[in-house]
Amino acid sequence: REPGSKVYQQETRSLKRANLPRNMIENSMFEEEPDVVDLAKDSTFPALDPDEVVYEPRSSRLLVRGLGENELDEEEEDYESSARLLGMSFMNRSSAHRPSSSPYTRQAPPRSCSRPSARTMVVCVLFLVIVASMTMVLYFLPGCTFTRVRQISNSSAAYPNSTNGELFPWTELRLPASIRPLHYDLTLNPDLKTMTFTGHTVISMSVQHNTKRIVLHSAELNITKATFQLDDGKPSDVTVLEYKPRQQIAVKFTEELKAGQHLVLTLDYSANLSHNYDGFYNSSHTDKNGVKSVLAATQFEPLAARKAFPCFDEPAFKATFLVKISRESGYMTLSNMPKAKTTELPSGLLLDEFEKSSVNMSTYLVAFIVANFTSISENVSDTLVSVYSVPDKKEHTRFALKTASKLLQFYNNFFDKTYSLKKLDLVAIPDFLAGAMENWGLITFRETSLLVGNNSSRLEQQLVASVIAHELAHQWFGNLVTMSWWNDLWLNEGFATYMQYMSLQREFPELDTDNLFLAMRFRALAKDALNSSHPVIVKVDTAEQVLEMFDSVSYEKGASILLMLNASLPGEQFRKGIIEYLRKFSGLNTVTEDLWNSLTQVCHQSVSEMMKSWMLQKGFPLITVSRSKGQVTLTQEHFLLTADNTTRSSSLWHIPVTYVNDSCSLEPECKQLFTLKTASGTLKLPDNVKWLKLNYRNTGFYIVHYGDEGWKALIDALNQNISVLTHEDRASLIHNMFALSRLGRVTFRQVLSLLNYISNETDTAPVTEALSQLTTIYKLLDKRQELGLVARMKAYILNRFDSLICKQTWGEELSASKQKLRSALLESACSLDHPYCVQNATELYKQYLESNRTKQIPGDLQRLVFTVAARSDEGWVQVLQMYAHATYDAEKRKMLQALASTQDTRRIVWILKAVLNGETVQTQELPLVFSTVSNGFAGHLFTWNFIQENWNRLIEKFPVGSSAIQSIITSTTSQFSTQAHLDQVQGFFTSLKERGSQMRVVQEALETIRLNQCWMDRNLPAFRQWL
After folding, report:
1. DSSP for 961-985?
2. The pTM is what?
């Protein structure tokens, strides 16, 4: 591919890189030339030493990017050439056996050259002496570091020191390819009195390539004994080296281990149960009688299995597991597989042994629990489905069991592949940071994500069903077929997110998850419009970057793109492609290209060609529509929100554009498809078509600008009859108009013109989208202390929605959609002091107290009623007392939000300290508390100050880059819009250095503040005129 004038330079550079390990080729590849060098076309090119490359599965691709760090997100990875480049790594040939005939070796010049003069030789010798002297001085000068070409060798400069001072034999984050684990035999002995545990791990391995070392992961484990056995030989003691910065341990050998040999490494160790929410951690709960019980549970994804047992803690190192756990008689244990037997130990403890796993698992999917839980169960297609909880909450498990059983049956049929294990446990953990975790056969949940009261609202059921559907989908996407490395996380999370909505739409239509999915897609667009966003598939080189992959792009954009793809394929082709993918890669690891290939095989069209543009570049397109009589021109560009003169990329997307018009706009049969691959394209319409609406039902991941005439035609149509478009399309128009206003393509007067029709709107999606957008602007004005504009915006919102607010009832409502509409309207109304709303909420709370809490408040209204009650001193104290004694978690969480909504500064400080210390309020609720407090005028500055003062404690509880830290930063800074706040936020995070300054969410926060500032500066004068 290289220009002819550069061939010689490319050849010599390629030869130098051949001696480097894989990641160093990646780092140095484009330092001088941006062209991708196709090194693997010639089979005689010298291979890398197999022991010097990190493990990549059969189908892995190396994502190669060009031209330096600042342009990583702008460039598209070259899958073809990079796959070939990585292919070299698997040639099992050492550099000592490279053929001398390699065409990449510079040939010796002919020997007919004339002899140089004596003067020339003297000058050359002096020059070489000077160069050598300078090199030695620089080399031995303290503080100098050479990173241009860092070659792994046996020299002491290549390797870091382990904890005992000996050289650690590995230098990369990813583990080497030379050893593969086959089976783990794990014995865990937790002591819930001392909050410690001991472990005994036996790892059976095979040698893939000749090597003199075994490198694996271990974190916060005190290894007390290690033995090693080769094939059928006798075990011998070995020394274990540890390098803590990368959480790796290693064993070195003087003699080479040979490919094909079988190894057994046995490790004894001790550790403390974690006090955070990852690894093997302790938890507790207090029953209704005030008796406290302790338990231990696990959370390993993504990088915490190494905190419970030494292991090859990367997704591609799949193995089988046999787990044994000791316990006291008053406890029970659970693990991925069914229990095989229980034996009594001489100490009086019981040892539970579980069956050997019938499937190969990644380490992050291993799980075990020691607790005192009760369960209910039923059999579904030869699988025992059970839901576990603390004894007091057993009555709240029935909805979860019914939902899981029905969804398991659905997935078995939809994927045409039966669930792989004999049992499926769903366990509610009292202390659990995430919503849930898909451990194979032992799914763990936060209590609010699994337990539902008998009188729960449809919205509460909707939440629980969504989480269950997501985690069950993972049993196929993620567990059965697993991404090779975290850069392809979307294959797990995007698919599980998409399947959760699709499955619920089919099996539980009464839960109205269509609107939930639509709102999620709007959120994904908002995140991906920022310059700080990233491609779906992106390089992941550090532990912090692994954690940061668990974000809106992997989950929500991934799901949105799958919806768009499915909507563009005819019939059942999408499902057939998925079935083929699961069939072909069952039990294996994959990359994104494997999925596209499976779909292409079924669809007989290149899915990869279309999807590559959506996977490998950040952001999404803006389609601008211009019409001249019967010809419509569609133009695409990158929709990028920017507060400066950032140049938009010239990226193009392969867009399946759907559209309807006034002649037929509601039914699926009305939808027409136009594929836009280039910068612009044209389509024909009859001259009598009055208006055109693109992105039917908002199934596409793009935004549309219709131009002044196009917008006017659509607005006129809605003012005449709102039923000319589906509710999804009406919500889509509102979302797109606000987005274009933020981009500066339409005026806010045009936004208000569109919203004139909203008084006649009765559907949930358009109303909630309009309310959400207006409330965001109101909060920005409020935090900016633009008091006059705040009052006018408040009056505008209440006036626009007044008739709809007053139509809402305050009794039980069965429809999930109507519950969502009612709660959104009334919460907005009460927060803006609408007299009708405040009066009714106060009366409902009064009846609740007078009936000694027997007259229930409808679930969808509980948060707003408790929030209104907590405005008074007496009410806040009452809600706090109810919170302390509440046992139903969904209701308890709403009380907590009410308490955190206070505008009393002393109470704000109290609740922030309480949640950080875990006193009264569980620390797992810290992100929720920060988000709620930050929404209020009195609280938003307190949370920012609190973060600065307590940053070190926050990152002790939640890892840097984790979703909890991301949530805290986003909620605390997202409503800032002044230069002073921008300077404060930038200065604070810059000062953190390795303690958080490099997080992507920090760049996102800074960008959001700049955009808020820019939007305010541009619109404030017009606001004063229009409102």
Report:
1. T-HHHHHHHHHHHTT--SHHHHHHH
2. 0.85
